[in-house]
Design goal:
Elements: E1 2-5, E2 8-10, E3 35-40, E4 43-47, E5 61-65, E6 70-73, H1 76-81, E7 86-87, E8 90-94, E9 99-103, E10 106-107, E11 110-111, E12 115-119, E13 124-128, E14 131-132, E15 141-145, E16 148-152, E17 171-175, E18 180-182, E19 198-202, E20 205-213, E21 216-224
Parallel strand pairs: 14-18
Antiparallel strand pairs: 1-21, 2-21, 3-4, 4-5, 5-6, 7-10, 8-9, 9-12, 10-11, 12-13, 15-16, 16-17, 17-18, 19-20, 20-21
Protein name: TYW23 protein
InterPro entries: Kelch-typ_b-propeller
Pfam families: Kelch_KLHDC2_KLHL20_DRC7
Length: 225
């Protein structure tokens, strides 16, 4: 059940740029539109991203040892097996299976709707041959709940620039056991279509906040029970 609250704020878009410091030895190159998630209490995994001159990062996969503040590039064999050149994707960790689900995004200006799984025990990649109505999205949100991947919102790649691109307000769910996508039936007022929002799981509630729709910046909160 969706429960809306809050308001929307319209704002004029403006381009902004900020110089990024060059990476020190043994750290990731500068990037944005990457994905990062914890894979245990002491380790985070950085995947993909786009660097300077709109070029995909070649050093796409890193581990961060949080307690020691130490970046570690992931081994060459794992790098080659991973989905390369992704940006605008999501990386979501399932603590029960110790797997990271990478979904969506853009790769070399092509739509990317595959699901890759990174097993953080063996550090091996698995490409899922998913069934059902497979969404093609970027700048969406993704959350794990009861071993399923909940994907909301986002924009449809390659349709137009982000300023005018059509957005989604559909909730897609991926079931890893059966490797199938489905759309659950929900009640209540749906959030407006959006991209670049946040989604956080709080017990049995999925909290969706903010985002953007064309030139409209959003500050509304929606809760899916």
């Amino acid at each position: 059940l969706f429960s809306p609250a809050g308001k929307e704020v319209e704002s004029v878009l403006s381009d902004c740029s900020q110089a990024c410091a060059l990476p020190s030895s043994g750290s990731p190159s500068p990037r944005w539109c990457h994905a990062m998630c914890l894979c245990d209490l002491g380790t985070a995994v950085l995947i993909g991203g786009e660097g300077s001159n709109q070029q995909s990062c070649r050093d796409a996969l890193w581990k961060l040892e949080i307690d020691s503040d130490l970046w570690l590039p992931v081994g060459f064999q794992v790098q080659n097996a991973m989905p390369s050149c992704l940006h605008g994707h999501t990386a979501t960790y399932d603590p029960d299976t110790k797997r990271i689900y990478i979904f969506g995004g853009i790769r070399e200006d092509e739509d990317y709707s595959n699901i890759y799984i990174l097993d953080t025990v063996t550090w091996k990649w698995l490409l899922v041959a998913a069934k059902g109505r497979i969404p093609v999205l970027t700048y969406h949100s993704a959350t794990i709940y009861h071993k399923e991947l909940f994907v909301f919102g986002g924009t449809f790649p390659r349709k137009a620039s982000l300023a005018v691109a059509p957005c989604s307000n559909v909730l897609h769910v991926f079931n890893p056991e059966h490797e199938i996508w489905y759309q659950p039936i929900s009640e209540g007022e749906k959030p407006q279509p959006r991209l670049g929002h946040s989604a956080t799981l709080l017990k049995n509630k999925l909290l969706i906040f903010g985002g953007r729709r064309t030139s409209l910046y959003l500050s509304d909160m929606h809760i899916l029970d």
